[in-house]
TrEMBL record:
It comes from the Bacteria. It holds the Pfam family NUDIX. Transmembrane segments: none annotated. Belongs to the Nudix hydrolase family. Residues 13-144 form the Nudix hydrolase domain. Gene3D superfamilies: Nucleoside Triphosphate Pyrophosphohydrolase. The keyword Hydrolase applies. The lineage of its organism: Bacteria, Bacillati, Actinomycetota, Actinomycetes, Mycobacteriales. This is NUDIX domain-containing protein.
């Protein structure tokens, strides 16, 4: 199996992942500065591949804990599925949102080969460039048009979801 830029498997093997919008009580969202070898540096939501037997919500909590050391998420919930229709293979990412369940939870760089820092940002002032899947998830979250090559499939979301 050969991995191309952006985590897409070049041989066409489907990849199913999650991207997690972690919301702090003040509405700020957690982003990591992705510095993965072979990729252009970008800003990225915590996330990664779904492992066999995992739900999207379980994968989201695991990925956030692995990448940031934050294990305090309240009620992770899927808000959309995005598909990279321009990828050489099948790349599907579930967007999951969750609030911090502990006001004092702060991220750490737990995977220094992939990220060099984590920051809290207002959803109205996102840094650039965004990792492609993260850009698609933010567009879905905000009800905006998807970036070229991406399609979003919003899920039924309760009215309590902040936007």
């Amino acid at each position: 199996m050969r991995i191309a830029e952006g985590g897409v498997v070049a041989d066409g093997t489907p990849i199913v992942g999650v991207g997690v919008l972690v919301l702090r009580s003040d509405g700020a969202i957690l982003l990591g500065h992705r510095i993965k070898k072979g990729e252009t540096p970008s800003w990225c939501l915590p996330g990664g591949r779904v492992e066999p037997g995992e739900t999207f919500e379980v994968a989201a909590a695991r990925e956030v804990a692995e990448e940031t050391g934050i294990g305090a998420l309240a009620d992770p919930e899927v808000f959309t599925i995005v598909v990279d229709t321009g990828a050489p293979g099948v790349l599907v990412t579930a967007g999951v949102w969750a609030r911090l369940s502990s006001a004092c939870a702060e991220p750490v760089v737990a995977e220094p080969d992939n990220f060099d820092r984590w920051i809290w940002v207002s959803p109205n002032s996102l840094p650039t460039p965004l990792f492609p899947a993260s850009a698609a998830l933010f567009a879905a979250w905000c009800g905006r048009r998807q970036p070229d090559g991406w399609t979003a499939y919003p899920t039924a979301v309760p009215n309590s979801v902040p936007r």
